[in-house]
Design goal:
6 helices, mainly alpha
């Protein structure tokens, strides 16, 4: 379950980017001459630094608890850095899909929770069923919200 360590940092990234998108801050920066590549690279560097701090804290904790007796720390570090980059790009994907911070956060949380549960060696119905039920209730809430929006503004 080491992948859960990155969830808070990813949540911060997603809500920050979608809040900028919602308040049209990105468009203002583009009007002042900001290139898209600079924007995304700056977010990638910021998130990478934050994730490296998390990785260092994780390693210090593992060393203090003497949990690294039978493993190569360099291999684990490379794996965690690669996973960190994957999580960052997944966060970028989620921010491109949605425009609301709440929707983006919920989508990211449900996706990562599903991935973490599916990493079990033998995922049982008691683990998978609540996640699927939560996702179903969330999607139902979105559809009800869209229906209310349609009724209020178009009828």
């Amino acid at each position: 379950y080491f992948s859960i360590v990155f969830l808070a940092a990813m949540q911060l990234l997603i809500t920050s980017i979608t809040t900028e998108k919602e308040h049209k801050i990105l468009e203002g920066m583009k009007m002042m001459g900001l290139m898209d590549s600079v924007y995304w690279v700056s977010w990638f560097i910021t998130q990478t630094v934050l994730n490296l701090i998390v990785i260092v804290v994780f390693f210090v904790t593992m060393i203090i608890l003497d949990m690294m007796q039978n493993m190569d720390p360099s291999l684990l570090a490379v794996m965690m850095i690669a996973y960190s980059c994957t999580i960052i790009t997944f966060g970028f994907l989620v921010t491109a899909i949605s425009s609301s911070p709440k929707t983006a956060g919920t989508l990211a949380d449900q996706s990562i929770t599903t991935l973490v549960v599916s990493q079990e060696e033998e995922p049982t119905l008691t683990l998978v069923a609540p996640v699927c039920l939560i996702r179903l209730i969330g999607m139902l809430g979105i559809f009800i919200g869209l229906g209310v929006y349609y009724v209020l503004y178009f009828v």
